[in-house]
Amino acid sequence: MIRVVLTVLVAVALLSVSMPALEDARVGTTDERLGTESDRIERAIGALSSGSRSVSDPSLAARTTITVRSPSGLTAARIDRLAIVEPERSRNGPGAALRYRIRGGRDRTVSIVPDAATATVEVVDGPIPLRTRGESRLGLRLVDDAGPTVEIARVG
Question: Which domain range does residue 129 map to?
Answer without folding.
Answer: 41-154
